[in-house]
User: Fold these one by one.
Assistant:
Number 1:
Amino acid sequence: MKNPLLENCELPPFSQLQPEHVRPAIEGIIHDNEKAISMLLASENNKGWTTLQEPIDQLDDRLGQAWSPVGHMNAVVNSEALREAYNSCLPLLSEYSTRLGQNRQLFEAYQSLKDSAEFNTLDKAQQKIINDNLRDFRLAGVALDDDKKQRFGDIKKQLSELTSKFSDNVLDATMAWSKLITDESELAGLPESALAGAKQLAQAKEKEGWMLTLDFPSYFPVMTYCDNRELRKEVYTAFSTRASDQGPSAGQFDNTDNIKQILKLRYELAKLLGFSGYAEYSLATKMAESPEKVIEFLEDLAAKSKPQAEKELAELKAFAKAEFGTDDLQAWDIGYYGEKLRQQRYAISQEELRPWFPAEKSISGMFAVVNRLYGIEFESVEGVDTWHKDVRFFNITRDGETIGRFYLDLYAREHKRGGAWMDVCRSRWQRDGKVQLPVAYLTCNFTPPVGDNPALLTHDEVVTLFHEFGHGLHHMLTKVDYPSASGISGVAWDAVELPSQFMENWCWEKEGLALISGHFETGEPLPEDKLQKLLAAKNFQSAMMMVRQLEFSLFDFKLHKEYGDDLNVQTVLDAVRQQVAVIMPPAFNRFQNSFSHIFAGGYAAGYYSYKWAEVLSADAFSKFEEEGIFNRQTGESFLHEVLEKGGSAEPMELFVKFRGREPEIDALLRHSGIKSSIETA
């Protein structure tokens, strides 16, 4: 049987991929790679860049090209057979990675290259790659005794299985709950777009009525607009107890034990390597200097934000009581009354803005923004093999030459993991005189087209689109020729959000909004009164949102920093909430059980990265505020000093080259409309 995963294809042949292809391909490639590495190490000539790093890059790339579409499809068109095939390979990949990282001979070959005269002739990117590799060998346990190496490998294998199980449970728990509403009056307050979406979901299940699910395009309108308080409570309860011991599917997909095991194994892994705990281990590859610096950074932001957050909550409570007679504000009321207050204060809502943000206009406008900044262009390509009919494919061109490509998968659907993300399909790499173009997956979960209308986005969704596209540009505009440092590869995790958060700014600028908005029926621009209201409402409850993100960040970091055998996850979360939060959720809330960023993604002891990088992005954008938001010279500078450089240099060095100094926190507070307690005293 011909296996498409073993073909050397420019792009993955998605329509040909079957679950039965997965394990044989991965097993075969791992076997071939290990054989090639053995031959490499047996050779006398294995201590140079072209005789060591380049062959390793080739082996990594072949494995990555096979595994990337498998992991991606598991996230966006999940099925039982594909999940089983995917999960069966996780131990194989983990064990292979561990063997590679603990290969003493390979480590010594890299150390010899570092100590050789050739090292001084390499460019800065090549030197950084060698140094990063040596660091990663140490973090993989290359210096451990054999028995500890074995234990390290066992831990890595178990963690790969547990984190995948965590993700599976969240997806299954999300898909397990739905509610059919047959009396439309129960949905009073929901906008037409949400009602039409709910009816379309019901019809897809051959039901009469309106179907609610826990997918975000269904969940969010209920929590924001539905007048039926009991229904809001029911939906909130189902959402906030997913994959836990509480709520409608209590115990069925419970992640509680997975969390305990993940934390325990991470702690043991860090201790094996001589770190105080997983937080310190995590920072070995990040910008932040120490766990104490991270805590200090987060607590400083909290101290500056909490007084205003408390004031915002007091205003919301007073409003709910005065206007609606509600004096026991609950978690399922916050979004609802918050929207009512926003309406009263600014007379604008996300739903009201939808007609001015048809998906096609927002996408073409986003391309126009990027073109003005960096002089690159975009072209849609038909006939490319994809995993779903809604997926589109684009080329990025500069001076008529294609420099990158990407898949765009915008809409929520069954069997697709929630959230939004960018992932790598192919990395830029120059070899044998040819350039392998970078290719990205850009994935969102927006409300799909309903009936005959095109997909209409909220402004929040447009901001999300720009965020993920910022990640994509970081990956695709790189000019680094080595896959270990091109695009997002080799970028410190707490700097990787800089380009994504940076892109969001153009969604809040009048000149940017003129490009990305236009009424879906008439093409008319966003009316001036709505524009002014949108901009005025930008920082509505921004301090409440700030402390919520700080709550997640501190919970994650303290959980990994303070871990011990007697640590209780809920106790840590409760203590963090007492310290920084202004909204205390009900006792049944099990947010942590679906916190995939830290228990199934790459953000363990790293969720603080969002705020860390937000300081960088706000300060970087302040230069555009000073020089013009479409100043081409400033855009070219950001392109050349940050986006094109990928992981070829330390992020602080790149930032300083662009900004002329180290980052300052003031721009973030100003952009968020937050005045510190000192200023408001």
Number 2:
Amino acid sequence: MNDPGREYRWSGPVPSGPHHAPSLPSLDPALMQTLLEHITARVAVIDREHRFVYANHEALAFYGRPPEQVIGRHLAEVVGPAVHAGYLPFAERLFGGETLRWRGWVDYPNHGRVYLHETMVPFAPDGGAVEAVVVYGRDHTALKLREDELAVQLQRLHASEALKSAIVDYALAALVSTDAEGNIVEFNPSAEAMFVRRRADVIGQPVSQVLIPERFRAAHQEGMIRLAAGAAPRALGNRMELHALRSDGTEFPIEMVLWRTDAGGGVFYTASMVDTTERHHTAQQVGRQREALRQSEKLSAMGSLLAGVAHELNNPLAIVMGRASLLEEKCEDADLRADVLRIREAAERCGRIVRTFLNMARNRPALRVAVDMNELVRAAADMLLYSFRTHGIELDLSLAPSLPSINADGDQVGQVVLNLLVNAQQAMSGTAGPHAIRVATGVEHRRQGREPRVWLRVADTGTGVPAELRSRIFEPFFTTKGEGMGTGLGLAVSRAVVLEHGGDLNLEHPAPPDGGASFRMSLPISGMAIDETGPVPLDAPDAPMLSRVLVVDDEPELASLMRDLLEQAGYEVATAESGALALALLDEARFDAIVSDLRMPDMDGAGLWREVLDRHPLLAQRMLFVTGDTLSPDARDFLRTARCGALDKPFSKAGLLAGVKALLAE
């Protein structure tokens, strides 16, 4: 029974008339039954109603049914509707007396897809009308499959060029075939493009010497020897991620599937390879982004802890700085004043380190103020000085004196400076000495219509940046550092910050004479810097003598220090150790300004401000909050809402006096 819609190959010639019983001697019915039941072909008889009249043992076995489920049953019921539908177009021809012979694939319910040779002969007794069709069939599925297999093998043996043009030449993947000894016998155009090698140059060459990196060649040779000895293959048919070698000696990642072909009595191995460089880059970028997000979340979780630690550390630092400043002014002995100066400078250095940590952890909108570039450099150097010393790195600061200030966000630019110094340190890691970082600042005078700028140069004696990578070092997630040494975001973010400030950040070319790399940053000038680190003279008070200031701080030593600093500047000062005591003093006396700690136990600075706003509205506009807690969101929100000034701990005398003077000026 043929499969509808399928093309069949008809054999001929075929008798056109119906079959008539020959004039032969009569055969014994038992003999005929034995003959039909044991013939190695299917024999079945179908009447005009398409019902089975007879089916021999071979036919019943093929249909998978006993006789009672075949004889007398309709063709569609036995072989399925699909096969019956394929029989219908030829039924009219058969019962019209035409003999048909065909071969092809048919889908049977019980046998699946089989390849059959069938002859259908109409039967008309005594020359009358056709009453039945005798079907003779043979299952040639195994033979057909064997023929197809032999055809494929013949094609492999004799169609090398045809296969190359039809498959190999137009394949998107790189296809490389070798013989049993590992010599290249085929190298398609995609392989030529991937490995940057010509086919003519690699045919006959050992694949290990041409495409495999040297560090993997020994393992490849061991695998070839193992296969030659009859060992089971480990790599055949498996998708593997490996590294390959281009003609210029660079390695790149690939994905490969290897299979074996036996042809012409020989063994051949073919590898299908895809360059996965872009996929690896994408995966690395995702990994770096995930790591950056993890670091961001970690930093956010540490925010409150940093704020508390900074607050506790800033209080004693402020006391040391303030007392050292007062003592420095009182000392008449030069040697003693020099010792006090060292104490004050050391305390200021500690304060800069704490402030740098807090600035790195802050997440706040950009705030443009006058910033001293030299101070940013000193703060970053103070933070990294111990690390430089333990790594044998000499730090040379050549900072221009009286450097003009720049209009910038000090936190953002400070992080750029810190990042350049850290990059310089990492560039020298693992290299032979000497190790040195040279930092210089200066002024770039007006040129080409641009306003004057302040510039910063950071140069190191590390490995430098290869010429082919110079154009990529500012790309996001691109890094020349080793695994785990960086995310590839530092320079990209730094340049974005500098460009946002209207400046430039570039890798200087040519490289420094002693090797390494040199980065130069320039930012526009906004005004002259103000020196806040030196002692403030006693004979230059910042406010009228009769101005009265209330200092509120739960730390008695800190309150006493601020009182002494303000009194020496000519202010009348009262102190309160709590918000409740401050309110009581405000009810009894007049004050022109309030300097208060933001974090206090019974009533914090925000609570005090609300009470003052309710009782003394004008005075609420003259409150300065001294705090080390500006990292917390609550503190930032309050200061923004109250529109009050803030002075970060530890503070200098000049900073405190400038803050109070600004309050009184309002």
Number 3:
Amino acid sequence: MKKLLDHIHSPSDLRVLNQEDLPQLAKELREFIVDIVATKEGHLGASLGVIELTIALHYVFQTPLDLLVWDVGHQAYGHKILTGRKEIFDTNRQLHGISGFPKRDESDYDTFGVGHSSTSISAALGMAIASQLKGEDRHHVAIIGDASIASGMAFEGLNHAGVTDANLLVILNDNAIGIDPSVGALKQYLTNVKKGTEKQDNIFEALNFNYSGPIDGHDLDALISELNRMKTVKGPKFLHVITTKGKGLKQAEENQVTYHAPGKFDSITGELIKKSASSLTKFQDVFGVTIVELAEQNPKIVGITPAMPTGSSLKFMMDLMPDRAFDVGIAEQHAVTLSAGMATQGMVVFCNIYSTFLQRAYDQVIHDVALQNLPVVFCLDRAGLVGEDGATHHGVFDLAYLRCIPNLIICAPRDEIELRNIMYTAQLGLEHPIAIRYPRGYGVIANWKLPFKKLEIGKGEMLKQGTKIAILSVGFMAENAKEAILKVDPKYEIAHYDMRFIKPLDEPLLHSIFKSFKYLITMEDGTITGGFGTAILEFAAQHYYHIPIKTVGVPDNFIEHGSVSQLQVLAQMDATYIVKCIEYALLVIESN
């Protein structure tokens, strides 16, 4: 027996259905998502929570003429399936498959690329104003959820939209949770609104929005009726919708943090499929354990994260020391300047932000931290290629965009022990701010919880002696270098140095290296342009060294989604490619 979903290839197919059939379509759409994500992995809870809203939007609005902007993007699985990507949805987040987030070059229905949060209101407002200027009669809808409304940029968009007559509808998907539970005064306000206990003027009406709600986001009839009514309302309007993240899968409703992106699970029972136990530890957990150890010894230590307590493992400290660890919500700019404020008062601040999200607070890093030379400790999780989340989440630009900032120390520990030791060193008291970057996923050392050792800032280390050719690596790329060296005939004696610090560089060690070798290969899991390899080239130019230098890292283009190992091959950063670089270096040396 064919299902309703089998007949839906575009929203035009959806709009010919009878309204009373839509609950059955919602059930089928949920099951479709659950079945695929159970085996292929991906984000789950957010999309399950907006199934009815997704159907209602495409049923009421004439998409793609009317423009939908999803925020955050991992809500949009149902949207993708209803807009012509059902047959290829099983390629979601896989190499050369469809993206896990809306992407403009993937579909006309994906009106704006959204991987980071809180951009929808500004983008949809821009579209609405442009439509006005062109004399077009279109609707523009921003669907903002998963705690994104609390971000500063969302308020900036609301503030501007409220003084326009743009045909803009903002839909707040209020599920009281992002990846972790929402925080802050706005959350409490919205909770009071839902309970009917909020006595103050409605904040959105105060911003000149025509406010409606809250309504049940799982009641298709109510959604369709209200969306149709709001189509007739002129100017900026705001619809407050209450949903349950993970709706329709019992475990996802009850454990919303875990089922945000649960990995593989049984599609029938919802139970997680246990992975084989690893003797290794994720870098985020090394950070989480270490900051607790250090904070127990140093009462000045505080931890700050913008909405990623579980992902960063600052949750360990928040559970044990709730008065010294802070989740500030999706507010990277605030997190950085809050850290700076605490640092002025002598606190030792560990500000943990995913590398890709620190980009959103670049001015604050420069103006509020580095310019004032405040010793904030930035711990940049998910540095380098992060895998299936793709171009919006790869942390590959940090070395380049941080290296040009005066006063800032930059360190890329190669393993768990180095991460612990640089964290220990940082809390002893530095004269400058420091950025410590480390990758997503597991480390390489089973027994990493060793006594702390102070590191000398700006000092690298020789890992392997050699002649003629030297590999200079930073961070976790040391593992690829080691693997490549093992594949080369030992008679060639390839040297390997862990430079560790991108800024300041270990200049005495570099002088020794340039005088001792005939060919250098630099390795980093960041963009080649402006990164560590560029720093080595600059050093060579400044000191009139003329030996060949091959820079290996992320090329000057945006890298798609796929497993980290696949992407390293794609970007020519894997061990096999390094072997080819070594073989070419040997030919160059022999020819000279």
Number 4:
Amino acid sequence: MTTQSSLKPHLTHDHVRELLAAMIRIRHFEDKCAELYTQEKIRGFLHLYDGEEAVAVGVIPVLGSEDRIVATYREHGHALARGVPMDRVMAEMYGKATGSSGGRGGSMHIFDAAHNFYGGNAIVGGGLPLAVGLGLADRMRGLPHVTACFFGEGAVAEGEFHESMNLAALWSLPVLFVCENNGYAMGSALKRTESNTDIHAKVTSYGIASMQVDGMDVVAVEAAARRALAAIRETGKPQFLECLTYRFRAHSMFDAQLYRDKAEVEAWREKGPIKRFQGWLSQNHLIHADEVAAVEAEVEREIAGAVDFAEKSDWEPLETLSAHVMATERPVPPVVPAPSAETVEMTYREAVRQAIREAMQKDDRVFLMGEDVGAYGGCYAVSKGLMDEFGPERIRDTPLSESGFTGAGVGAAAAGMRPIVELMTVNFSLLALDQIMNTAATIRHMSGGQFGVPLVIRLATGAGRQLAAQHSHSLEGWYAHIPGLRVLAPATLGDARGMLWTALQEPDPVLIFENVMLYNRTGKLPENAGPVDIDKAAIRRPGRDLSLITYGGSLYKALEAAEALAADGIEAEVIDLRSLRPLDDATIMASLARTRRAVIVDEGWRSGSLSAEIAARIMEQAFWHLDAPVGRVCSAEVPIPYPKHLEDASLPQVPGIVAAAKSVLGKA
């Protein structure tokens, strides 16, 4: 039970000494980092926390050990205040293997799972949706934890800030948002970049309780943090602290600080948190000079030890370069039973729906979220009816905020849930690309393997419905370019139903691209259909004369082309890639060893396409098997047109596949 006394800092001698010592410890650590930067021991972007120490020290010690922290790129002070060992923080600054992230994150990406420290984030505002997702996971599981999210005032201009505020308020999530308002987003003063500089007022417009506090006063910050955390634990709703502070050093060590003069900085230094608090303690005889000297000496010894530890630590060996991109331990591939004679007729859409239903029945950590996935069933009605079965908590409608709810999915997955995020159409995924590429795909690597994101993202992809240029993209090849992701393209009913469950067992993010032209496709599915192997390509039609290599919606065009070729005595082998990252090179090369010719059918644009990657691999691995150059059939290099005849002309079609096949056979 919250009492009035628990809401106020108890300014005992021990406590005030702890507060002062914690701020001095951060300040001296940052001073040493600046020195090491000039010696080129620390490289990259180095953002120092000088002047803002009262925020981290006022907030973080009030959190419980099970509460989580999401920080920004100026996070060394947060990590130290949280209890991440200084020697491991310093080793990370060096990039050494003993660092808190194994040396893979560096200054901007300090992670520590043991302290529930979910890392710094180099993307302005990028950590906000992650914090929302961590809070969502706790709310859905009924856990009493709080996630504290630190960010600067520059993030307020980002869409992810507003998306995150809305989601946190809408879903009543236990998140403490801490804005460290130091007045400058890099070199841009707040008054030059915001039409309304009152961040506190902006937040209250979302219905979030907000306090503005003097961020240079550690006692005021602690008091505000205690009140905010007590309110979150009592109501489950988010709280917001705007801490008015100032950084004494440049934005980063690359910053020439042309946007402010020395007099302004010196004026702020005079009211800095350490000088102010130490002066108040001395005036009131709560601490003495010899005590302060002892604290500083103790801190200097700790820093010297941390530097010595970092200097003597080993670099990560080159042999482990590819470690922590994906999890080393993966689930055992599912046993695929022989198909039963009994079949059920259904559409591709119904097969995906059945997969979602079965996953949610098997695992209560699984939930679906996206735009209109509830009563409407999403843009293509895949989830229609599931809200009646599982309720609005697990079939979760979202606002039109792709970055916000995709990032929330990332956070929920990192906290142990198994989210399925539906992005209505693949072009909307570009609004969430930051969260997919910069967080989901990288957090395992940046954290040295401490955090993973077992997330599934479903995307409707492809053209053919006369949706014109902005709703007809095939971007699978773009995502297949990104390390840290698995990319799937189920074409058959069996894969549409079975790939989802297999993907949900993966410890890393999986993107599933569902071609829009397949949703209405009907077929017979064996009654015992279940999970499928997502690592292997499938031979959909055996052949001897050439290999047609494709995926997704183009599979059926390739099969139809193979039928047409067979009428001319040409037996084409049709390979359904199924997995686009990683590619099943073995199946492709084994097919070419038999057929010695290949045509790749890819609905993406030709330049820089997935087909180009496959062709390159064929040349690298199977050149001496080939009897002809690799052929490609891709979409025309134009935005997809609206008129049906132009749309058809822009996409791979059966006649073009047949012509390409005959060309590589020398029968054109």
